[in-house]
Amino acid sequence: MTAAPLSAPQPTTTQQTQPTEQTQPPTGQTQRTPRFGVNYTPSAGWFHHWLDFDLDQVRADLDSIAALGLDHVRVFPLWPLFQPNRTLIRPRAVEQLVALADAAAERGLDVNVDGLQGHLSSFDFQPAWVSTWHRRNMFTDPDVVAGEAEYLRTLAAALADRPNFLGMTLGNETNQFSGDPHPDPDRITPAEAGAWLDRLLDACEQGAPGKLHLHCSYDAAWYLDDHPFTPAHAARYGAATAIHSWVFNGTQQRYGSDSAAVAHHAEYMIELSKAWAAEAHRPVWLQEVGAPQPHIPADRAADFTRATVANALDCPDLWGVTWWCSHDVSKDLADFPELEYSLGLLTNSREPKPAGLELAKIVGEVRETWTPPAPRTVGLVVDLPEEVTVRATCAPGGRYYEAFMRLLAQGARPTAVLAALSGDKNHLTARGITEVLAVEDVWS
């Protein structure tokens, strides 16, 4: 597996002596050391632990996470348990979430909270008031959306005064409810998806002003034709762009476990997202990435971890890396896809696994030696409209995807630029792009 150096080279020249407001990076985003965290999966009971919440067990889990040198956790309330009725948000459940956040603070861990769970590890968790006899579209029904907004506002407000509260993520990959291959999707248009994002992000801001509120999508937003959540939604709504990079999406199956495409997949998604970003230095959060077996053999998990993180760190404007996940899913629990049982950095007995030890080593190295990566000077043109419906060219096996990987193999450090912006000198200068290539140029 190929990896960039953990401390990337510095730019040899400054881009502008007096950056404009448009090109100035957000304060503290691009120059500080990237954050390292983990998606918290409780060692006992998985996310069903909310039914039998045990703060001592949570504290022990968080101790094992902090021992790896990580600085934050992403946590997952189960929506039906927290809001079992549209007008009932259980105070005791909210208190337990706050207790978890406070326990994390005691261990030096910041907390991001996903609200609408939603979808986790192949299981859907939706309250009864949006299903069966009460079946309503979760994205467009005005009563449902009002209930979702109040739920998110309530969670954000409960944590707003906690210094270790990073902000809200609307929910985990909620875009999967909006279209195929979901077995019972809530069909919407891209415009309706945008309106939903606006409404719910505003609710988070009302509850906790000024925090890092965002949303996340699985990779259908980037790769699947006609999916209603688009790259522009991912890269323009919320305070940061969230990337969920999974090589079981066809990357490993097409190219092989030891391929450059596997090692660079997260890096590719990070840079692809920048084509649609309205700000030149919008922060990008690699919010989910993991080493799924058998796509990544157990004896290669540490190598995959190092290569993936090193290549991601070579991307300017990376906010941080949050691994999936903290602890393995217990084999006592039934019906998970087999790969879900072994994704943890730690075992159910809270012992670090090879990938966990490797990530801990990387974290220590980065904090000792970090320098921000140089700008990526080669812009590979994404010849798609801003409001894209056809996007398979960007998916594994697509012509754009393979051109990007070919440039990497040639030693270049490409980024992505939309065709509509490829002749915009101010845009290119703000991003440090000095050479623009069409896909055809790569193959000529």
TrEMBL record:
<feature type="region of interest" description="Disordered">
    <location>
        <begin position="1"/>
        <end position="36"/>
    </location>
</feature>
<protein>
    <submittedName>
        <fullName>Glycosyl hydrolase</fullName>
    </submittedName>
</protein>
<dbReference type="InterPro" id="IPR017853">
    <property type="entry name" value="GH"/>
</dbReference>
<keyword id="KW-0378">Hydrolase</keyword>
<feature type="compositionally biased region" description="Low complexity">
    <location>
        <begin position="9"/>
        <end position="34"/>
    </location>
</feature>
<dbReference type="GO" id="GO:0016787">
    <property type="term" value="F:hydrolase activity"/>
</dbReference>
